[in-house]
Amino acid sequence: MTKNATGRVDHEAELRKAGIRITRPRRIILRIVSETDDHPDAYEIFRRAVQEDKNISLSTVYRTMKLLEEHGTIQRHAFAGGPSRFEHAGEEHHDHLIDVETGDVIEFRSDKIEKLQDEIARELGYDILHHKLELYGRKRRSA
Amino acid sequence: MTKNATGRVDHEAELRKAGIRITRPRRIILRIVSETDDHPDAYEIFRRAVQEDKNISLSTVYRTMKLLEEHGTIQRHAFAGGPSRFEHAGEEHHDHLIDVETGDVIEFRSDKIEKLQDEIARELGYDILHHKLELYGRKRRSA
DNA sequence: AATGCAAATGCAAATCGTTTGCAATAAAAA
DNA sequence: TTTTTATTGCAAACGATTTGCATTTGCATT
Ligand SMILES: [Mn+2]
Ligand SMILES: [Mn+2]
Ligand SMILES: [Zn+2]
Ligand SMILES: [Zn+2]
Q: Which of A41, A85, B87, B138 is 20 to 30 Å from the Cα of A68, by its Cα?
């Protein structure tokens, strides 16, 4: 995996290696998704991108998200209701707890659950390609 | 809970009790969703409904699904990609394994996973309102 | 059974998130 | 630099779902 001067993964090099052209919009979008720690949707990414280059189009954001998804750079989530939301891949796998009141997304990971999922699939005669575990909850109001 | 002559839940009575009018389209749609054991989408329900009443509209199907969902009669699922799919509620809670090749939906239930979810949410200071666990897999091809 | 009225319907048009065709532009190969 | 080819921005198309509105219907009331 290619690293850059700061020791982080160099996505541009990774993509170039895969024969993908590094264009101005792609460089900007890539920066946005790799620097944020939230789960923005395409329009939000577009909004942030426009601040850096006034004539980036929403189509390009969508096209780039699909490209990066196929390339494994980002992950797409389809939380209940709304549009797809994205996050930079590469960290360890985790699932999400969505605060139904604020829309906040909290990440968590349970190895036990992950393992149980595999067991279940195996018993049913399947191999899991991916899965989705989303908890929708409300902050507990202590009595 | 109101039961009818056959001992099953009488949805029409339940709805009427809640001040909801039992119309011809609603009666038909209700029959369809309570008799099927698959997970049809709105258009499929519409298709089946039209066989019984040639001038039911897709709008009414959508409106009725929302109504029944709010009333707790059915559950809505948003599996990856496609449109919302519905199933009759009332049976015990279960989660789904989706065959990515055929679109088939297999139901399963793991008390262990359910319990672990509660623990996780509690640790994070949340109460779970509902959750979604979907496994996307492919039939294991035995060597 | 006939009446009255709010609720529900069908239809067409609107909306939302997303994708696509196409001519213009820019990346990278030569 | 020139050439080749991928990528862009824009507008129009898209699929799923919702909505406005005039008409019909369920059903509580006579
Ligand atoms: Mn995340
Ligand atoms: Mn089910
Ligand atoms: Zn997981
Ligand atoms: Zn569950």
A: B138
Pairing of strands A105-108, B74-77: unpaired
The pTM assigned to this predicted structure is: 0.88
The CA distances from residue B76 to A12, B55, B73, B130, in Å, are 40, 25, 10, 12
Per-residue model confidence (pLDDT) at position B54: 95
pLDDT per position as a tens digit, B105-143: 999 999 999 999 999 999 999 999 999 999 999 999 876
Whole-angstrom distance, CA of residue A121 vs CA of residue B140: 9
Smallest Cα–C1' distance to nucleotide C26: which residue has it? Answer: A23
Distance CA A61, CA A2 (A): 24
Separation of alpha carbons B111 and A45, rounded Å: 39
Q: Are B128 and B116 in contact (CB under 8 A)?
A: no
B 76-115 → A contacts, CB under 8 A = 78, 80, 97, 99-100, 106, 108, 110, 112-113
CA of residue A108 to ligand 4 center, whole Å: 17
Residue B9: pLDDT band by 50, 70, 90 thresholds? confident
- Alpha-carbon distance of B128 to B122, in angstroms, equals 8
To the nearest whole percent, how much of chain B has pLDDT over 90?
80
- Cα separation of A61 and B1, whole Å? 51
